[in-house]
Amino acid sequence: MGKGFAPVLPTGNKAQLKPELPLTSINEIQASLLTYLQDIPDPRVSRTQKHLLTDILAIAILAVIAGAEGWEDRENYGLSKQSWLSEFLELPNGIPSDDTFRRVFERINREALAKVLSQWLPHLIGSLSGEIVPIDGKSLRGSYDRNQGIKALHLVTAWAGEQKLVLGQVKVEDKSNEITAIPALLELLDLQGAIITLDAMGTQTAIINHIQAKKADYVVALKANHPTLYTQVKNWFEQAQAHQFDGIQFSYDYHLEKGHHRLEKRWCWAVPLEAFGGLYQQAQWQGIQSIIIVKRVRHPGHKTTCEVQFYLSSLPADAQKIGNAIRKHWGIENQAHWILDVTFNEDQCRIRSGHSPRNFAFLRRVALNALNQESTYRRSLAQKSQRAAMDNNYMMAVLKAFCQA
What's the pTM value of the predicted model, to 2 decimals? Predict the structure, then answer.
């Protein structure tokens, strides 16, 4: 993971619980949840279809929302909730076994599952105009299989921080990297008016062109993977700082933050392109308007660290606005990736056969979106997940907020 953007540590949610929760009818659940699942192709031959695919998928989704981490957890959730599940699922032969869940998710078409389930998003996403959308990669560390020579699954995800939604994810193919996955992810999304933030891995002219083609803006980290341009910006900044930016047009912002036993000072300078005097191979960076310099001095405990980072942006030189986008880039880490690891225990999951790692990863992100959309129970996602596991009415409230937004 690159260090081009400074992380924000997650904070606890101490908001109070509202005493009354809306009750959702069984008919609403059946009409909303199952409608999205019925068109997914069944990978099994007819003679082995002892359980309906929609039942298997519905139980799997509910179980993951309730905190299920493995195949046995899904079966246990179904057995524990069988009486309630039978009110809106057919369950012709009872609850599927853990082996049935495993075999189905190993074989079900990962693209079909992602495509059908992603139909939920248009009902959830508001306008992305002005929204900061970080794109970043995450490895599922437990998904490797040494005996089969399979590396850990690596996914690139787009995150809408204000709306707390995973917008999409793409697998980084074997013998490839995020550079090839990011354009594929951009192609899936309607990003008009959004501000895309990327760390140095994504700072590529082809990716910038793709972002501009989607009518979005960008703020991307510049590091030594572009050595000539990086050196030019670094030398310019050192000269400008030595002369206190005398005679140079720029925008400036300063922040001081305290918390978590640390103090951090941040200075941000945004320089319009014309004031900079031209860049190396400038024409290749479509839409570029400003160069940004961020200096951070941190005092964690009794230590002091200092770093300077550079960024390229298609936004006008507004240090406050661009600095906010840089700061919010790490929302994908503490609001999505951190939650997936801590609440859903994703890194420790050893599901690794067939298509199951990617399919299960997608369901975790569906669960993350669903729990984030339910707002009556103002607690952490871990507590919301636990309550959904214990309270059928609350599980229905989560589904209503997600399926019928």
Answer: 0.87
